[in-house]
Write a structure and sequence with these properties.
Elements (H helix, E strand, L loop, with lengths): L1 H18 L27 H12 L2 E6 L2 E7 L1 H10 L11 H6 L10 H17 L5 H20 L4 E2 L2 H16 L9 H16 L5 H4 L13 H24 L9 H14 L7 H14 L2 H16 L1 H14 L14 H14 L14 E3 L2 E3 L4 E5 H5 L26 H4 L14 H18 E5 L10 E3 L3 E3 L4 E5 L2
Parallel strand pairs: 2-6
Antiparallel strand pairs: 1-2, 3-10, 4-5, 7-10, 8-9
Helix pairs in contact: 6-7, 6-18, 7-13, 8-10, 10-12, 13-15, 13-18
This protein binds protoporphyrin IX containing FE (HEM).
């Protein structure tokens, strides 16, 4: 009897210590249940709405306990900026979880930390610059892909279509040209399948899902957490990348460096001579995987939101068409037109704001125990920046739920001002999106070129597709069809 009572008291004490005593200084959280914490109090795929409610109740910085794991959610532009930018020396690592332990195994750019991340990010940025990042030649490459997409759209002659697949091929081809030195045909079944696998990974992994936080759950039988599907998809994508790398190795000529993979192989050779092994084959596979994955899904999702907002706001579409017609007419769109087309710029910003493309960013963690806002952030704790809370922050954006590109224009019709400066769809700080410039170029050129040729109309004016998306890594519109009507 005494043993039983002791056991019960020990259990209660340990539970209290685990959920209360051990977290005295952590940001506040909804009440935790013993052992499971906050599991069951919100569905990971509804995190955006749940986190909005928790923020109202517990403040800008709150924490959640998912089983034994603490996750801190940071809301509002200023807190995210303070942690990732001002304290970027502390908050630029990736925590344990699916990205670090499974997708990247600490290699590459997206999931690595510390000196390995710095080395790969610096190398990648320099190499990508050599192959066009930030240069005029990239604009031509993008426009070649835009033309290919326009031809595909043309073939449908105004029938309602789901643009997702051709758009994904077109956008992925840009990063493939830079990284693989080759592009793929719209009818290439293998490439289409690969993009499908990637899209499925983006669908199945949310910042706060069990699988994301506990990648070991992929071993649970019957694929309950879809971890085996994610694993299979990843294996297939990696073997595709390895095949391309092997072909590059066979034809490698140090006097003829054509793409990112060549540049990496060159660096590998140089470093081997110095007996430095940081540029390994595995490192190359993961870095290429990162660029391919991060560089396609996100932009496709943003453009799909753009088309959706255009059919929901025909007045804004009319204004855009007039603006483009009056200022550049049928001239081939160029990046230097951005300043001349402030309404397009403002529209793109509003799509990024309302589309909320990567709502919870990519997880960060502090590299040491840290105090901020009166709370402790223990070394290695998962920190999710609720980027959506910053993009729709009522302290920055008036009437934040309203789609209104004009908010980014000043009295002279120029696209600038505080609201623009506080936009962080690409995150902020040292880990800010590596492809931000490429993405901004793509969004502008695709939109202008498509709107020069087509007006976008709904399949059924009486029944518009929903503006409620699906939360995975990105927040994607659900499948929908629109008509691209040739402008006379
Ligand atoms: C509209 C399109 C895009 C959006 C909204 C977007 C957004 C983001 C966000 C929120 C992050 C996380 C930053 C952080 O950890 O705090 C990120 C990281 C990253 N993005 Fe993008 N991205 C886009 C397009 C691209 C493109 C076209 C590339 C092509 C190279 C790219 C490559 C990367 C890479 C490599 C990282 C990891 C950076 C690091 O960990 O150091 N992204 N992106």
């Amino acid at each position: 009897m005494i043993t039983a009572i002791l056991c019960v008291f020990s259990f209660l004490f340990l539970t209290w210590w685990f959920f209360a005593g051990g977290r005295i200084n952590l940001p506040p959280s909804p009440p935790c249940f013993p052992l499971i914490g906050n599991v069951g109090q919100f569905a990971p795929e509804d995190s955006i709405v749940a986190f909005r409610k928790f923020r109202k109740k517990y403040g800008d910085i709150f924490s959640l306990k998912i089983f034994h794991k603490t996750v801190i959610i940071v809301n509002g532009h200023d807190h995210i900026y303070n942690l990732f930018m001002k304290h970027g020396d502390v908050f630029s690592d990736r925590p344990a979880g699916i990205l670090k332990d499974f997708f990247s195994k600490g290699k590459g750019v997206l999931g690595s930390s510390g000196s390995s991340w710095k080395e790969q990010r610096t190398f990648s940025l320099n190499a990508l610059r050599k192959f066009g990042f930030g240069k005029r030649c990239l604009e031509n490459q993008i426009m070649d892909e835009v033309r290919g997409l326009l031809e595909v759209i043309e073939k449908f002659e105004g029938q309602a279509i789901d643009i997702e697949e051709p758009l994904a091929i077109s956008i992925a081809n840009i990063i493939c040209s830079i990284v693989f030195g080759k592009r793929f045909d719209y009818n290439d079944l293998k490439f289409k399948h690969l993009l499908f696998l990637l899209n499925q990974i983006f669908h199945l992994t949310t910042g706060s899902s069990f699988l994301t936080l506990f990648p070991a759950l992929r071993h649970v039988p019957f694929d309950i957490f879809k971890g085996q599907t994610v694993q299979r998809n990843l294996d297939e994508i990696q073997s595709f990348i390895k095949e391309i790398i092997d072909n590059h190795r066979l034809c490698f000529d140090k006097n003829n460096i054509n793409d990112f993979i060549d540049a990496f192989l060159m660096e590998q050779q140089n470093q081997e001579m110095e007996r430095n092994t940081a540029f390994t084959d595995e490192q190359l596979v993961v870095t290429v995987q990162d660029l391919f994955a991060a560089g396609s899904e996100t932009t496709v999702t943003t453009l799909r939101w753009a088309f959706l907002f255009l059919i929901h706001h025909p007045d804004i579409q009319t204004k855009l068409l007039k603006h483009i017609d009056e200022i550049i007419g049928e001239a081939v769109p160029q990046i230097e037109h951005r300043e001349k087309l402030p309404y397009v710029e403002a529209f793109v910003l509003e799509v990024l704001r309302m589309g909320n493309i990567v709502p919870l960013g990519v997880p960060h963690c502090p590299n040491r125990d840290f105090e901020y806002g009166g709370y402790s952030f223990p070394n290695g704790v998962t920190v999710l920046a609720n980027l959506g809370s910053a993009l729709q922050d009522p302290n920055i954006f008036n009437n934040p739920q309203k789609f209104q590109p004009e908010r980014f224009l000043d009295e002279d019709g120029k696209c600038k001002g505080t609201q623009k400066d506080k936009m962080i769809p690409f995150s902020t700080g040292r880990r800010v999106c590596l492809g931000e410039n490429l993405a901004r170029m793509e969004l502008f050129l695709y939109l202008v070129a498509i709107l020069q040729k087509f007006e976008i109309q709904p399949e059924d004016t009486g029944d518009l597709p929903s503006l409620k998306g699906h939360l995975g890594i990105t927040y994607m519109p659900k499948p929908y069809k629109v008509k691209f009507i040739r402008r006379s």
